[in-house]
Design goal:
With 357 residues, this protein is mainly beta. It has one helix and 28 strands. The protein has two domains: 88 residues, Immunoglobulins (Immunoglobulin-like), CATH 2.60.40; 231 residues, TolB, C-terminal domain (Neuraminidase), CATH 2.120.10.30. Strands 22-23-24-25-9-28-27-26 form an eight-stranded mixed beta sheet, with no helix packed on it. The longest helix is centred in the N-terminal third of the chain and has 21 residues.
């Protein structure tokens, strides 16, 4: 008797299970948006206007709103599944993002991003150089930071166990003052602001603050970038490079990020930005592994000029000496003098810029 009832019981259970599942509410599906930028190009020009078309598909339910953002700024909000926005001006260099956030009436939402590259609308001016003077420079200095202040040269050097901050006399190269970092740190860029010396390190994501007067270590700070390279200041904030095409402004009081800026010429992004110097409202930067210094507009990130220093060390080196890449820009504001040097270079040079034809 029990065996004969088993198939009926099993069939009843399967029927109940099927009926229960078929009556479960359908899972809400995310809306899917597609973003098209017109005209379609590989690179866009700073200041160019584009049209952005947004098309959204909804599998079930109803759309509540669709928000279109350009670089985190809301451009349009609509409940239409298809719309376009003409005349959007591309006013940010580098990698730009259009982002669409589509939200249904039940709260389910989805985000889509369209990225494009914006390059400068300015062709950089080209300069070469004239050597005005040359001075001694330590052959053992792996130069990472370089600054002229109140008649002395201040230099930050790298490599583990060889990282220092030094104050030297320009004419003689004699060291007046020095601070050595713990050998676990690889020193990087330095800058002087409000009677303090600020210094980055390479991969420790840690910076140090010293008294200018006696090089006493008075503070330290952390930064988000994976690497620290060059450092300068605009009189208010620190400005750092990290080996990419991005510069970061840092508040020297609480070390928070103020802003970031991508650097580009009319040909594309400029990577490997290294040692920095703020000169008369512009940022001058070494491009690592090259003999090129670029001048950057700190408001837009546009490269305004390129300075080619090829051959500057030819007369001052021989096969037995270890010469590494150019890295070091310092400016004497009072006397309008520009100095450059490099890693392990035996000389530093005062140069005058010469416009190239």
């Amino acid at each position: 008797m029990k065996k004969s009832l088993f198939p009926l019981v099993l069939l009843f259970c399967l029927f109940v299970t099927f009926f229960s599942c078929s009556n479960k509410p359908q899972r809400s599906r995310k809306p899917v948006s597609n973003i098209v930028v017109q005209p379609a190009k590989q690179n866009y020009i700073f200041g160019e206007e584009v049209t952005v078309e947004v098309k959204t598909k909804v599998k079930n339910g109803e759309i509540k709103n669709i928000q279109l953002y350009y670089e985190n700024q809301l451009i349009k909000e609509s409940n239409e599944l298809e719309f376009s926005v003409p005349g959007i001006e591309l006013n940010s260099l580098g990698n730009n993002n259009f982002r669409v956030l589509a939200t249904k009436t039940d709260g389910v939402n989805n985000t889509r991003i369209k990225s494009l590259l914006v390059i400068s609308d300015v062709a950089p001016k080209n300069y070469s150089y004239q050597v005005v003077n040359n001075y001694p420079h330590s052959k053992t200095a792996f130069t990472e930071g370089f600054e002229f202040y109140a008649g002395f040269l201040y230099e930050g050097t790298g490599n583990h166990g060889e990282s220092h901050i030094t104050k030297t006399q320009l004419n003689t190269g004699n060291v007046v003052q020095q601070y050595s970092l713990d050998e676990k740190y690889f020193g990087e860029g330095i800058t002087i602001l409000n009677d303090k010396i600020y210094q980055l390190t390479y991969k420790a994501q840690k910076g140090f603050v010293y008294n200018l007067s006696d090089f006493a270590l008075v503070d330290s700070f952390r930064y988000n970038s994976r690497e620290g390279w060059g450092l300068t200041n605009d009189g208010t904030n620190l400005i750092m490079s990290n080996g990419t095409h991005t510069l970061t402004w840092i508040n020297p009081n609480n070390f928070s990020e103020v802003k970031t800026l991508q650097v580009a010429s009319n040909k594309g992004l400029i990577n490997f930005i290294n040692e920095l110097e703020y000169i008369n409202g512009k940022i001058f930067a070494n491009v690592y592994t090259t003999n090129i210094i670029i001048e950057i507009d700190p408001e837009t990130g546009k490269v305004l000029s390129e300075i080619n220093l090829d051959g500057i060390m030819n007369m001052y080196t021989n096969a037995s000496e270890t010469i590494d890449y150019m890295n070091g820009i310092a400016y004497d504001k009072e006397n309008d003098r520009l100095f450059v040097t490099g890693k392990y270079w035996p000389r530093l040079f005062e140069i005058k810029l010469v416009a190239s034809e």
